[in-house]
């Protein structure tokens, strides 16, 4: 069965599932237990913790990295999966607009935050595909633990998309 994650979504399930998503500056973390063939995947937009408020009921629970990670850990616990026995993979954090040398863009912040979270939870990162330009397409096959990642470069001329010309 195929599951498609939108921004702020997450999924935890067994080997009958394949999970897909598209990432720009967002980041996905996949966690996979090879013996149990249970996997989890997030699609978060922002680093840190969300401050869910009643005036923003439309926010999905996995919008922020730390919240998404907790949802993955809780889901794995319901399946009896110790997170430290999982293989972690990290994807995304692409530049969707020209990067500035002076400012750490949101994609870079997301990727760095994801690395730190996995380290703090004692989860070994076996691979990552972070940063660069453009967006990524991901397919996570829980049966095998394989994550296919294809980075799609931005359209030609994107670096000048915000440039102004003087008449």
From TrEMBL:
Family the entry assigns: Belongs to the CheD family.
Q: What is this protein called?
A: Probable chemoreceptor glutamine deamidase CheD
Stored Pfam families: CheD
Domain of life where this protein originates: Bacteria
State the organism of origin. Duganella radicis
InterPro entries linked: CheD-like_sf, Chemorcpt_Glu_NH3ase_CheD, Cytotoxic_necrot_fac-like_cat
Q: Which GO terms describe its biological process?
A: chemotaxis
What chemistry does it catalyse, as a reaction equation?
L-glutaminyl-[protein] + H2O = L-glutamyl-[protein] + NH4(+)
């Amino acid at each position: 069965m195929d599951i498609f994650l939108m921004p702020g979504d997450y999924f935890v399930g067994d080997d009958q599932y394949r999970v897909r998503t598209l990432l720009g500056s967002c980041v996905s973390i996949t966690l996979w237990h090879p013996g149990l063939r249970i996997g989890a995947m997030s699609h978060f937009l922002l680093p840190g913790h969300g401050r869910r408020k009643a005036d923003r009921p439309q926010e999905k629970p996995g919008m922020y990295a730390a919240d998404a990670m907790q949802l993955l850990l809780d889901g794995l616990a319901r399946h009896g999966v110790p997170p430290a026995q999982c293989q972690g993979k990290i994807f995304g954090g692409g530049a969707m607009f020209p990067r500035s040398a002076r400012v750490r863009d949101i994609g870079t912040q997301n990727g760095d935050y994801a690395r730190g979270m996995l380290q703090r939870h004692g989860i070994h990162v076996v691979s990552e595909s972070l940063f660069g330009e453009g967006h990524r397409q991901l397919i996570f096959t829980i049966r095998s633990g394989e994550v296919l990642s294809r980075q799609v470069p931005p359209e030609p001329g994107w670096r000048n998309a915000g440039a102004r010309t003087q008449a």
